[in-house]
Each structure stands twice: as C-alpha cells, then as structure tokens.
Amino acid sequence: MSHDTQEVSANDAHARGPLLLLLGSGLVWLVISGVLALIASVQLHTPTFLASCAWFTYGHMQALQETAFVYGWLANAGLALGLWVLTRLGGEALRAGNWVTVGALFWNLGVTLALVGIVAGDATGHSLLQLPRYVQPLLLIAYGAIAVAGVLAWSGRRNEASYASQWYVFAALFLFPWLFSVAHVALFVVPMRGVMQAVTAGWFAQGVFTLWLAPLALAAAYYVVPKVTGRVLPGYQFASLSFWVLIVVGAWTGGRHLIGGPAPAWISSLAIVSCSLLVFHYFVVWLNLKGSIGQGGAVMKFTSFGLLAYVIGGCADAFTSIRSFAVITQFTYFTQAQQQLALYGGISMLFFGALYFAVPRLTGKTWASAALIGGHATTAILGVLLLVISLGVAGWTQGQALLKPAVTFPEIAAATRPWLLLATAAYAVLLVGNLMLVVNFLQTLAAKPTVPAATLFQATSDIKETA
Amino acid sequence: MKNGTLFFLGLFASFTVSFAVVLLANHQLGALTPYFDDGEGKAFPDRMPGVAARGQLVYRDLGCASCHTQQVRRPGFGADQARGWGERQSVARDYIFQPFAQLGTMRIGPDLTNSAGRKPSALDAEDLMNLLYAGQGAMPAHAFLFEQVKVTGEVPAKALKLTGSAAPAAGYAVVPSEQAQTLVAYLLNLNTVYDYPESRPVVQAAAQAEGAHK
What we know:
The complex is a heterodimer of chains A (467) and B (214). Chain A is an all-alpha fold and 467 residues long. Chain A has 15 helices and no strands. Chain A has one domain (10-449): Cytochrome c oxidase-like, subunit I domain (Cytochrome C Oxidase, Chain A, Up-down Bundle). Helices cover 76% and strands 0% of the residues of chain A. By secondary structure, chain B is mainly α. Chain B has a domain at 17-141 and 180-199: Orthogonal Bundle (Cytochrome Bc1 Complex, Chain D, domain 2). Chain B is 36% helix and 7% strand. In chain B, the strands form two sheets. Chain B has a two-stranded antiparallel ribbon with strand order 1-2. A two-stranded antiparallel ribbon of chain B has the order 3-4. In chain B, helix 2 (50-62) packs across helix 4 (178-188) and helix 3 (125-134) packs across helix 4. Classes of the chains: A mainly alpha (467), B mainly alpha (214). At the A-B interface, helix 2, helix 5, helix 6, helix 7 and helix 11 of A face helix 1 and helix 2 of B.
C-alpha cells in the first residue's frame, strides 16, 4: 500500500463533517431496515405475527425494509463514499460541503416521511420505488443539493486524467435524478396506464441498480482495491468499455421480470439479450478486481466478497432470464434471493469494505475495535450466504411446486417453511453484525485521536494486520 | 474520457435511449382502446364500478400485491391455466381502466386475476369476508378490517357467520368495515372471462411454438 502524502490529506478534514453525517445516517437506516426485514421475514412463516394492526401488514413491512435499506442505507453510504472518492481522486477539497450537509438532512427527513407514509398505506406498490409519491420531489431536491458537491469535484478536478472510479461516481450522481424524475412523471404526474406502469416501474427498478447503486459500489471498489493491494488493475484498458456496456444496456434488462405476462413479448426478449450482453461487463469487473480475492484484512474481505457476489449475481440474472429458468423462478422467493445477493451481497458489502477503508482517513482515528470489525466480517459473510441460500432453495421449491397444479398452497407453505425459518435466522445474524459496525463507528467517533497524525496512516492503512 | 462534455453527452444519450424503449412500449400499448363486441353490443373491458375502484386502493394500500399476482401467463409458460387461474392469458387490454394495475411480483398466494370468474365455482362475498377475517394457512388474517359490535336486538345483516375459534364472544358480532366491503367488492369484480381477439391467436401461436420445441 502506498503511503504518499495524499494519505494524510487536508482534503479529508474538510470533507469530514458532511460525509460522516451521510455515513452515520446510513448506518442508522441499516439497523432500522435490519429490524424491519426480520419482522417481514417472520411474517412469512408465522402469518399471525403483528397481524392485528393495519400498519404492520406484510406488504408494508416488505416495502418499509426495502425503502430503508435502499434509500436509507445504500443511498447515504453510496453518496458519502462516492463523494469521498471524487474528492480524493480530484485532488481538491470537498467544495459545497454545506450543501451536502443540508441535502443530507433533507434526504433523511424525506426517507423518514416515506416510512411514515408507507405505514399509513401510501406505498406505491412498485418494487424499489415504494416511496410515497409526495416525498419524491423532496428527495429529488435533497439529492440535487448533495450532488452539487460531486459536480464541482468533477469539474474542478486537478488531475486531468480521469479514473474509472470517477466515471462511475459521476454517472451515478447524474443519472439517478434523471431516472427518478422521469419515473415520477411517468408514474404519478401523467401516469401511464395499466401494464405500462409495470413496464416503467421495472425499468426504474433496474436503473436504480445498474445506473445508480452498482456504479457507486464499483467506484468504491475501483478506488480501494489498487490502494490496498498496491497493484495496477490488470484489465484497466477494458474498463471504459465495461463501463459503457453497463450504462447503455443496463436499464434494458428490467423487462426480464415481465416474461410470459401481459406486457409485449419483445420487452422481455430485449431484456434477455441485454442480460447476456451485460455478462461482458461483469467479466471485465471480475478481471480487474480479482486481485482483491484472497487478500487479508477486513477491507479486502468485504470487498472481495462483494465483488464475487456482484459478478455471480449478474450471471445469475442472465441465467434466470432464460425462459426455461424463468418459468421456475419467476414470482418466487428465488427472485428475492437474487435481489439480496445483488443488493446485500454485492452493493452493500462493497460499501462496507470502502467504509472500513474511508472512516479512519476521514476521522484521523483508527477503528476503535479490531474485534468488532472481525465480528462484522464474519457475521456479514455468513448472514448473506445463509440468506441467499435459504431464500434460493425456498424459491426453487416453491417454483417447482407451482408448476404442478396438484400441489396446494398449504403444501407449498409447508415445504418452504424450514427454509423461511433459516432466512429469518440469516436476517438476525446480519442484524447482529450491523450492530457491531454501528457500535464500532460510534466508539471511533467518540475516541480522541491518540496516534500522532504522522504515524496514523501507517497504522490504519494496515487494518489487515489488526483485524 | 478526458472530455467531460462528451462523457456527459454519452451518459445522457444512453439514458434517453433506454427510456425511449419504454416510450416505444407505451406507444404500442397506450393506444389500446376497449374492444367493442358487436355480438354482445357492448365494449370490453368494463370499467370498474366506483366501489370496486375504491377497493383496489385498499388492496394497494394494504400491500396485497406483495403475495398475489394479477397476471395469468401465456399457455406453455407455467401452470397458470392448469391451476385454474384463468382460461386465457392476461393481455394488456385487461388493465386499461385500472389506475393502479396490480400485476404483482410474488406468488406466495394464488394469482387473483380471474378470482371472481373461476369455474366451476369462485369464492363468494361470504367466503372472502371469512378469509380476510380469519386468514387461512399462509394468508394472514386481516381482522383489523372488521369491527366487533355488541348485539342488541337483531344481529346486523352484514355480520359474518363465524363458527369455532373464530367466532366472537356471545352477544357480539363481527361486521366488516367500509374498507373490507370495498375490498371484497373489488375482489368480486376481478375477472377476465371475456376473450379478446388478441388473447386467442396468441394462445394458439404460443401453443404451437411450444409444441415445436418438444
């Protein structure tokens, strides 16, 4: 790992307040969404759980946990890490930091209102866009305020050459507001009719992943991996092609969920083709970042796991979009397994890795507890594996059973129940791990910087020895 | 990618093209009108009666779509028809009058597209009320949609006829709230019995294609 002067950068001190605010609020949402996910998961095998109140229907819990996870945790953390990477690579201090702070406050206010609205029954019913329509403009404006800092960091960058990380962050910063406002208009302001709502919502949901969250996570990984391994990325010359493949065909893959249904067949066919084109993107990401696999240290544990999950998740999407797989997995827990693999195993784990790398540099303090880092790494990896496998098996069982008309719904429920119980255990494990991260984060913030600045980064850059 | 402007334009272009695909679909589907059947002298699909439309909002607000789809897939793709969920596949025209189409993404419970048009027998209002009140298997009870009222004199006409453990204490009756009534009106309105021209040829073509593969 390089110990150049940039490691002890004044730029980080500048960015500290706003970015820690984003990260901190993200962590609060992470825990909240973990609790909500646990409740929703219990309701699947124990339908009487919290069934006495209209607020806590399964539909609400599902919408709540997804919203808290994506718009609470992933959005806050992704923006913080993205901006951090931009300022670091641009060699410029974070400008418009106050905008970020104000934007972050309003964003989190918006997410809070969204959750209250969902409890009250105002979820839109569209996957990954459950946010009640009336909070969407607020979120858009708040996002804009945060993104100002990103635009300034990009346009004012001191280093002429641009890095893959920068393209990805900039793309994410710029594309999300577009995606969000177009979806808002097409679904709520001048709503499209009938089936088109599902088509548009599918396009949006896919865009959230491929045009926003995945670019942010890849930006973090493309920044962190060479820093920690100290190696040049091997397939870097293909990186820009891979970037454009993701950006150009990514959002087209959304229609794969509509296969067989009332939407025109060409939509799902186009999605299937796009899914296989996207495999090229995953391949290049793999080629570039596989150097992180097997590297010691907490940062690399999270990052390499995230990377594997991201690539495997992408290939799984391509496989299950094929008709003979889709006929089994469509409408089952298997799709939830895939979503968790992508969002939790992929995006979130990459964010965890980058977060463990960034926080010591932002705060000027080493992590308070190496044991908690290790604990989080173990529980997160175990939890994701358990979750994806249990939901995957549950979904496969359910899908096979649905194909046999003689199998009744009580029988399907009985056959999936053990796996759904296991999924609940997985959510509990994940929650415990995330609490360790929160405790560690708070302890780190509270600690006095004990190590003199000059030696600080010597120590922190080698989390691998301490964790 | 040193050229920021070009980069920006590239992003914008890819985004626009991806949305253009959505618009293309909208061009194709947005123009759908009700189909006028000369034989029957009326157009299909019917508009939902007001009470059912309000019931759809209850359905959406409670998140029923998190467990139920409303889309019967084409023949040869899954066992939708064999399970009795619909005699034909769903087509886009089925949904043109639905302000909030509830296609759904999960089938933890059965598909409900044609739940009121099922043969030989579909659930009637009483069955649906009881199902919502008491739940059944993995289908959660929605007892909060009902009120327990003290019976003085005659038992209210709307009261559920409950037996066994679901029955209320003596002297009480369970009556559906306004929400439960609109929801049930909506469920009773769910049917795709009418056969559109486009749902027929697709049935045949798909069946043939399926046959050719085997």
